[in-house]
Write a structure and sequence with these properties.
Elements lengths: L7 E7 L2 E7 L15 E6 H6 L5 H4 L5 E3 L8 H13 L7 E6 L1 H13 L5 E6 L2 H7 L4 E6 L2 E8 L4 E4 L9 H18 L1 H14 L3 H21 L14 H10 L6 H18 L5 H15 L9 H9 L8 E8 L4 E8 L2 H13 L3
Bound molecules: nicotinamide-adenine-dinucleotide (NAD).
Length: 361
Amino acid sequence: MGGLPVSDELAIRSHRGQYTARFGTVDEWSLTGDGGEVHRYLVDANVARLHADRLAQILHLPATVILEATEENKSLDRIIPVIECLVDAATRRDDVLVAVGGGIVQDITCFIASTLLRGLRWRFIPTTLLAQADSCIGSKSSINLGATKNILGTFNPPEEILIDPSFLETLGPADLRSGIGEIIKVHVIDGPSSFAALAADFPRLMDDPGLLLEYIRSSLLIKKRFIEEDEFDRGPRNVMNYGHSFGHAIESATAFEIPHGIAVTIGMDMANHVAHARGDLHRGYRDAVHQVCEANYRGFLGVPIPEEALFDALSRDKKNVGSSANLILPTGPNASMAKVGVVIDDEFREQCRSFLVGLGR
Ligand SMILES: NC(=O)c1ccc[n+]([C@@H]2O[C@H](COP(=O)([O-])OP(=O)(O)OC[C@H]3O[C@@H](n4cnc5c(N)ncnc54)[C@H](O)[C@@H]3O)[C@@H](O)[C@H]2O)c1
């Protein structure tokens, strides 16, 4: 990435002890294992194809599993053949699983590492912006059950993460925007001044790898604060779900046609719309965040979001309590994030509907 000094690291405290996210390049990492360790690689098929030369030493290993990164494959049924491959390759308890890919390969690897042989160590080389700026830290694995997104999961941090920003050079614009969605999210959560700085830089983010790297770092630093305080998502970390109840519902309602981070971007905008309609958020801030969110999801406005499927998915969200949706909404003069129980009634449906209509649907 333009000769940028990328070698440094970030340490994260977890229930398993400390783990490290290191910035560097795969070329300087020992991919085949040190000290007799056996690495079992699970590699995103597109990454294996696009980065075949750099990853040659692991792609030639007989036990390496190549995975198509689709939401359908991130499901209980579809991970069984992956587990069978690892069992057939005589994976042992002291072997290390290594995920090379985005959030999907991460979730699959982390979930398998939580359960296979009652727990294996795992490491992660994130190759998407979303995974580098957000999902690589925080310990979560999530697996889908049918159309219900991320309903199965565990908390199982990797031992180590290697962030090599040069992987992003082959990422398509939709996946870049998806990662930018999560970057917007943490900066809005961090507060109006963080958001204002991001909003000023937003127009250059897609085309300036150095700037993007700065935002990868700042996003991880913001997230680190929340996950170290509340790794198991019982309290303060809940705010990281801002945009996610709507986002997951949008993903389900569109059969995953809208990438995760884009759905979250629409979800944040929708959450702000609802917060304003409830009298909890002032118009100026709602509009300022809308401008950035809309610029990020504009390319997906043509994908229809069926209303009933959206409400159905919202009512099945795992964060709900009783008949209320537990939403994270910005509230008050500082747009502080708060968990709000919202009954899914006619008034709420109308607020959601008016948002969708405002998008030109
Ligand atoms: N566990 C967590 O904490 C967590 C957090 C956020 C999101 N997620 C999950 O992550 C998933 C989304 O992950 P994602 O956005 O990282 O993408 P992804 O894993 O879905 O990959 C998106 C696309 O990018 C391709 N790809 C990956 N790296 C590439 C590269 N370097 N060059 C070219 N193409 C590349 C993949 O093959 C795929 O086609 C969702 O399932 C979401 O639920 C998990």
